[in-house]
Write a structure and sequence with these properties.
Layout lengths: L2 H4 L2 E7 L8 E7 L7 E11 L1 H7 L19 E8 L11 E4 L12 E5 L3 E3 L6 H4 L3 H14 L7 E5 L4 H13 L2 E6 L4 H7 L3 E4 L5 H4 L3 E6 L4 H6 L3 E9 L6 H6 L3 E4 L6 H12 L7 E6 L3 H10 L5 E5 L2
Parallel strand pairs: 8-9, 8-11, 9-10, 11-12, 12-13, 14-15
Antiparallel strand pairs: 1-2, 3-4, 3-6, 3-15, 4-5, 5-7
Helix pairs in contact: 4-5
Length: 318
């Protein structure tokens, strides 16, 4: 048996309580074993997302049930190390990436167990650091634009927070779909948005987007708060605001004659495969803001919570 797979323990970042970043402990943990229909993955890299620190702070306890201690991190890239009974989609040695069930232990660890239906083959032309940045953010962008928002070629979409993980993927996916894309970002990121393919960019620090955008078919809001409240009037009648940060106001949507919805991302291996194909075709690019070792998970979550990242934050494992 391979020496690695024979080990009974692993390094992991776990939280035993909710709270500030110091509840995250880098420690030894028991290596998980795959059950029926599951795969054991040796994790090479884990993406860091707002979901991670929201779980850590206890913000989602009313939405999902968590069992502590908990390993955070719900997107990864790695290699299949073992198969549970009935698992047939992959073989040991396959390179995979995915978005595991966020109510279970995640990817801030050397090993991860997940349903085989939650994983897909890693993009051929990406290394693990970049591949780990894709699944959660990429699926959120895909499902927000197409499944929830129904974005079609020729339509106009305004994307708030277009330099972040979800925003950056959404901008590129909307352009691939044939939409006219407007992105908001700070002054230093205006050129970056144009490199990603934005047709128009708005510096939210010096300009009011609601004075510049009119009759948009869709607003993708990754910011919330005041940004959401000012977004209703930029939509055409019957347009839609899709939020990644909470349930938007149905009353305000009705008042403006538009629609509103939140995206609740779901694991989807078929969509992950489509995203991987776009990456391999060079139509979707992955941008990393920072790569940190697993032992610096606290710092990674602090950077994520502070916002203003350009692309994704990733933890290197192993």
């Amino acid at each position: 048996m391979n020496t690695i797979t024979s080990l009974k323990t692993m390094k992991a970042v776990r939280m035993r309580d909710y709270g500030e970043p110091d509840v995250l402990q880098f420690e030894d943990a028991r290596r998980p074993e795959p059950g029926v229909g599951e795969i054991l993955v040796r994790v090479h890299a884990a993406g860091v997302n707002p979901l991670d620190w929201k779980v850590r702070e206890g913000r989602l306890r009313g939405v999902r049930t968590y069992s502590l201690p908990l390993v955070p991190g719900w997107e990864f890239s790695g290699i299949v190390e073992g198969l549970g009974p009935g698992a047939t989609r992959f073989q040991p040695g396959d390179e995979v990436f995915g978005r595991p069930d966020p109510s279970r232990d995640g990817a801030y660890a050397e090993f991860l167990v997940m349903k085989e239906s939650e994983a897909a083959f890693k993009p051929r032309f990406l290394d693990d650091m970049h591949a780990a940045a894709v699944p959660l953010a990429g699926l959120t962008a895909w499902q927000a634009l197409f499944d929830v928002g129904g974005l079609a070629a020729g339509q106009t979409v305004l994307i708030h927070g277009a330099t972040g993980g979800v925003g950056g993927f959404a901008l590129q996916l909307a352009k691939w779909k044939g939409a006219h894309v407007i992105g908001t970002a700070s002054e230093r990121n205006q050129g970056y948005l144009r490199l990603l393919g934005a047709d128009e960019t708005i510096d939210y620090q010096f300009s009011r987007f609601d004075d510049q955008v009119l009759n948009a078919d869709m607003v993708l809001d990754t910011v919330g708060g005041e940004t959401e409240r000012r977004s209703w009037r930029v939509l055409k009648k019957g347009g839609i605001l899709v939020s990644t940060v909470g349930e938007p106001s149905q009353d305000e949507a009705k008042e403006h004659g538009v629609r509103a919805a939140a995206v609740h991302v779901q694991s989807n291996a078929a969509q992950l495969a489509d995203i991987a194909e776009l990456i391999d075709l060079g139509k979707l690019h992955v941008v990393l803001d920072a790569i940190l070792p697993l032992s610096q998970a606290r710092r990674a979550q602090e950077i994520s919570k502070a916002g203003h990242t350009r692309g994704k934050i990733v933890l290197r494992i192993g």
